[in-house]
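thought: fold this chain, then report.
action: predict
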Amino acid sequence: MSLVKPLLRDLELLQIPGIGFKFFLWDRLEAYNTEFARPDRVQQFSLSWAPTQITEMLSRRLSAFSEGRVRDLSSLTNARLASPLQYLAVLFAAGSPRDMTRVCQEILSEQLRMDSSSERLEVEAVIEGILKFAKQRANELAGPSTLRELMRIGRVDFTANFIANKIFKISVNSARTKISHWVEKGIVERIGEQRTGSNRPVHHYAISDVRVARAALGELDFMDFMDNKILVCVNCSRVLLRDCDIQSRHTCHHCGSEQTNPASPVPN
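observation:
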C-alpha cells in the first residue's frame, strides 16, 4: 500500500480533466479506506464473480482453445468425478477467475506428472491437483503457521472453548485472541452461537474459505471432505463449511435458513 497510497489520496491528480485512473485492490483493504483513500470523494466499486459467471468463463475458454469441441471439463475425463468436474473447478476457484485457471493448471500438471501419454484426466490427477492448489492458496491466504494451527484442529467449525481445552491447551481468552487474528485474515468467520449445557451460548466459528478448509484437512479422503464438510444452503445457495459428520443440523449464517446434511453437495 505504501506504493499506491500517495496516489489514492492525491485528489488534484485523480481529478485532472481528461485523465482516468483505475486501481484494482484487494477487498480486504476496504476496512482501511479512510486511511489509504478518500471514499468521500473518489468513487469505489466492488467486483465479484458469481459461480455461474465463472462457469461460463471456463466454458468459453475451453471452447475457444478447442475450436468449439470442448465446453465442459467433464468431456476431458472418464473418471468417476467426470460429471461434477467443472463444478469442482469453479467451487475451489471461490469466485476468482485467476484461481479458476490455477485449479485447472494444477489438475493438468498432475495428470502430466502421473501419465503424460493419457488422453484423459484421471481421478487421481483431479484430486491431487485440487489438493495441491488448495495448499498453495491456503498458504497465501493464511500463512504457513496459521495453516498448521488449523490442521491441528482437524475440524472446519469450532468454538474458542473447544480449541482452548481440546487442541492447544491454552486459556479461553488466548484462544479468542487467536481466532480474532484468523478472522482479521479473512479465513475464519463467526457463524452463530453454540449452547454448552446450562452455560450461556458461546460464539461459533468456521473456516470461511474452501481452499483453506481442504488444505487443513488434506489427509481426509476427498469425497469424505465433499460429503461431510460442505453444505450448500437450500435457500441462498451459498457454500457453507460445517462438520456435517459431527452434527446433523446447521444454520446458514448468511440467510438464517436451517440446513440438514445432504448426501453430497456434488451434483450428479
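thought: worth noting. The chain has three domains: 1-47, 51-136, 144-260.
final: C-alpha cells above.
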